[in-house]
Amino acid sequence: MPHISLSNLTIAYGNHKVLQNITVEIPNNQITAIIGPSGCGKTTLLKSLNRLVDLYEEIKVEGEVRIDGVNIYDPKADLLSLRKKVGFLSQKPYPLPMSILDNITFGPRIHGMNGKNLLDQIQKLEKQIPIDSLYPYNKQKETKSKKKHEMAYLVEFYLRLAGLWDEVKERLHAPATQLSIGQQQRLALARALAVEPEVILADEPTSALDPISAQLIEKQFKILKNHYTMVVVTHILRQARRIADYVIFLYLGELVEHGPAEQFFSSPRHERTRAYISGEIS
Amino acid sequence: MIASLVLVLGIFAGIVIVIVLRGASSLNLAMLIQTPEGGYYLGKGGGIANAIVGSLYLAFGALLLSSLFGLPIAFALQKEYLGRRLAHMTRLSLDILWGTPSIVYGAFGFIIMVYLGLRASLLGGIIALAFLMLPIMIRSIEEVIRMTPPELKEISYAMGTTRIETTLTVVLRQALPGIMTGVLLAFGRGIGDAASILFTAGYTDYIPRSLFDPVASLPLAVFFQVATPIPEVQQRAYASALILLVIVLLISLASRLLSHRCSRYIVR
């Protein structure tokens, strides 16, 4: 069963409908790319998946988004655990106004994740995702307190998972704002992963980055996709071709076509999709 | 632009020069550490330690009291808490309060004191000063809080935090240097104000031992001394003003230093 399924989702800001009757299922443990021209509702669709759209004023949501069988727009749904389960990466990386280390421990601290279940979680992931040269927990040198030790382990694990550890291990207590913008985006990834989400949403995660940093992010996404369901908004077709397993194509708030990436790009069924892929419309 | 810069610097330099020229000669250690002796106001021995300590008590007391109320109010003016309309109305009333002359706060504080059965005292002065400080503090801090990038809050909310958690961790840290500036602004306005504490704090030659004793203050010390016909005492008024100026300068420098240290973490 898919984690996420949308049925008849319609979203309007005031009287302006941004999304109309979107019905689609997002496959598990793959990278799903949402593509389409600017202003066609890509970001709104993405932000509707963890109810970040709630932060906008005068927003109206109709229809259903089911995640693990629960309609997240049900008034009884638990918003905080939804957002914990569905992580988010913004377009421009914003480090939190604290040190690199505190950026990573922010989520776990707030959610009171600690001790045993945290370690179990990490060790399970560690088996699944081969992260080279992570020191096993029990062989790491003991620090004064157990809690500090666990946190240090957690920080190293997630920074390695986001491919940032080697660049920052010497300056974990430096302000996160000192990192380059590409590093900041990987820090944001590590920070989102540290909350232990099952789904990761990314809103044009490479659009503010230089090509090399963008490549690093894409590489990391490909490593992560086997363990997380990833949804990426992009307006770069070539990026969608490179990373996507599944594609959702929006045009002016409507879902035109969706399907496995290979089929989508090689034999599009709709005229508009074909025109978009070939560059006739943008 | 250069003309206005020169004007501002000129006014500042003028004030400092006048105060230093007229006051520095009578400034001495006794002035700083002694309370007035008999005949002080006729030009005899003693100092204004009563007013220095009194002013610090008053200003820090009022700062504590107004921060206690002001900080939560400033945070609550975010749209997540009060909503736009209510926040807008609160801002408007705070702006009016900011412009209210301090003598009105003094009169208002006096009415409250009569109602509570208090006499002119340190507590009365602290309450009146806190009223005066509140709108300045709230408005200047709230402006900084509103400048927090919405994306920063969004990121925090996206990790499943409540609005309180976001406010106390992310917004507070982002706004910290601005909060210090706001607190400093309120302090500066408070320690220099004479009218609001004229009826409420009273004046005395002694250092207060409890919240219910009357208390002297530097602005009133300046006021009383400059009004006498005796030249030595008038000079002491300028010396008192110099002390007040130095206190404000020191506090200002200290808070600059602190806020500079915190601003390393700020996201721009």
Word description of this protein:
The complex is a heterodimer of chains A (282) and B (268). Chain A has 282 residues and is an alpha/beta fold. Chain A is 38% helix and 23% strand. In chain A, strand 7, helix 8 and strand 8 form a beta-alpha-beta unit. The longest helix of chain A has 16 residues. By secondary structure, chain B is mainly α. Chain B has one domain: MetI-like (MetI-like fold), CATH 1.10.3720. Chain B is 72% helix and 0% strand. Chain B is globular, with a radius of gyration of 21 Å. The two termini of chain B are 27 Å apart. Classes of the chains: A alpha/beta (282), B mainly alpha (268).
Order of helices and strands of chain A: EEEHEEHEHHHHHEHEHEEHH
**Whole-number tally of structural domains of chain B:** 1
- Give me the count of strands of chain B: 0
Major beta-sheet overview of chain B:
none
Uncertain segments of chain A are none
CATH superfamily of chain B: MetI-like
The chain pair with the largest interface is: A-B, 29 and 24 residues
Count the helices of chain B. How many? 11
Helix content of chain A: 25-40%
